[in-house]
Amino acid sequence: MRKEMFNHEINILRDTYRRLLRRQAKTNLIKLNKKTHPADLATVFRYFTDEEQIEIFSLMNETEHTAEFLSELDDALVNDLLSKETLERIAAIIERAPTNDQSDILNALEQEKALAVLELLEVEEQEEIAEIMGYPEDSAGTLMNTEVFTLHEEITAGDAIKTLQDQEDAEMVFYLYITDDDDRLVGVISLRALTTTPSKTTLKDIMIKNVHSVRPETDQEEVARIVAQYNFLAVPVIDPDSHLLGIVTVDDVVDVIREEATEDFLQMAGAGKDREILLKSSWENAKTRLPWLFASWIGGI
Amino acid sequence: MRKEMFNHEINILRDTYRRLLRRQAKTNLIKLNKKTHPADLATVFRYFTDEEQIEIFSLMNETEHTAEFLSELDDALVNDLLSKETLERIAAIIERAPTNDQSDILNALEQEKALAVLELLEVEEQEEIAEIMGYPEDSAGTLMNTEVFTLHEEITAGDAIKTLQDQEDAEMVFYLYITDDDDRLVGVISLRALTTTPSKTTLKDIMIKNVHSVRPETDQEEVARIVAQYNFLAVPVIDPDSHLLGIVTVDDVVDVIREEATEDFLQMAGAGKDREILLKSSWENAKTRLPWLFASWIGGI
Questions:
Q1: Is A256 on the interface with B (CB under 8 A)?
Q2: Which residues form the CBS domain (chains A, B) (predicted)?
């Protein structure tokens, strides 16, 4: 039943795309690309032929939406798509993505191509990406978002709200991380607590001082465990001097849990950790992205 | 390595409890109960004998903390613990829990005892619990939190923040759900968007109108899929007339994904859906709560 419902929605989207492709209705395809959620677009993409994929992708703008779509797509498909693209177009798209997605997309490319794209980016951006790519695979460092919102412990709740209103970049803000004179992470405040505090109160007086944090080397399973155990929405990543490097958010943790579950299944099925060999057909692909559907399917054999 | 780290922390907590129990240091035990996170308390509890469990539980207050601890505990343990308790104490604890946890705890009891406890609660609360317990097992209805924060579409952002400041009850607020004159769900605003909007703007003008919602009968796997696919922090549950019944939050979805993964493992291992048979020893228990550890353990055989 569930499965059918999901397939039903995706089937409608797929058929709409196919109809527009047949009619070569480019204006409508561009509209549909913009209107479709990046995650849905990534799901439906697996149903298309190589030619259809390239045609649809060529009609997408170099926007954040396209960057998000690529980060939702499986590595093998990203590599296929981008291998036919100019370095300039790839760089233009990557520029719009958050740092952790940037390294994901670059990791999917062949090394030579990835380095060539990297060279087209601004020096500051290159350094940030290089840092993230330097962390061990499947660690908090590769998972974290480096655009974090921090405030000094001595400012007031009222000023904090004003500062927040000027910050357009930092996405997914639920917690405000508080730092001291030495830029060390000393506390955390939920956005809700900030909203409901009298505006003259100093952040120091309302912050929670015992902050659960991880190090960039911490394995993503450990990060997932902490987030799941304590119902956190995000966990901060700090260096040995307690400087805040980034945060891992719950939406990425959800992906980790699903991914780990799949890996463990494949291991049990004797396929080893190398998921790529199973990512040949679009069907297998869909299953890897949906471990619980995959699970009931295997269970039913 | 990860496993050791986790065990290490839990071992320290367990040894501290054991030392205090041996010394019959009740004041210290009460302090430790209060200081320990409910999720950690539930984990460490599985290491204790029946007698130790009863002694520790007898020193816990009838607070929200204790209610949360019970909701984190496995059903078999909840039943064991509460079978020796008076109906009045159980009712006093249950009163402090959110509705979905209330039905979880009652579901763990034997039916006769659950009904007797239910009768001690206020009529309004009885009705709410009865409604939740009426939804199908593993559905959005049994998973949802009914304490939701709604606002009328015609009020301003400034007034919305003021109203929010008076609401102490509604936990985990990330989204504000917006209703029309007929009390129908017509939009949603993130807390962040509200904070960063000029205070005279009407909610109608900043709300997102296309709200993804589910019905109380929707299976929890479908809810998990929606939350994971779109990176939501919560998904609203509505009735056929679009009235908001509650929300399912991402922390509960994380639990669902882990639980489903475990169920699928057990099914593959030939144990069927009946997890309870595997919940006899505290070790098995711990593994059921931590599917990925369980998975690597099975994988290693």
A1: no
A2: 144-206, 207-263
